[in-house]
Structures are given as C-alpha cells and as structure tokens.
Amino acid sequence: MNGVCFPPMKEQIYDTFRECSLSGYSKAYDFINQLPKERVELNHTLIKFWCESKKIEVKKIEQEA
Predict the structure, then answer these.
(1) Neighbours of 41 (CB within 10 A)
(2) What is the DSSP letter of 42?
(3) Which of 2, 12, 35, 56 measures 20 to 30 Å from 44, CA to CA?
C-alpha cells in the first residue's frame, strides 16, 4: 500500500504547541503499537500529524447598565 490515508481524527484544541505535539506522538505510538508487527513491516506504516496555530476570537459581551 502506498499513499493510503485514513480520515483525519477529530482533535481538541490544545493550549500549547508542545501539548499538541506530545499528544500527536503519543497517539501515533499507540496506533502503530496496536497493529500487527508484520503489517507495519510489510506496509511501512507511519503516522503523519501536524499542529496548527489558530487565533481564537473572543467577543466581548457588553452588559447594559
């Protein structure tokens, strides 16, 4: 198999880039660890992930006096 991708995982928003990175590596490790060794060797399975920075807009709600 070459270039076969699973649908993206729905993820949470992390407070830091570090938290996102560590979570991605941990989940990739768990995923690979659950596959049969022969399958990983035969298909050269790897996990690709990335973290994106997104600016979150916080709207102020003005209270009426």
Answers:
(1) 10
(2) H
(3) 12
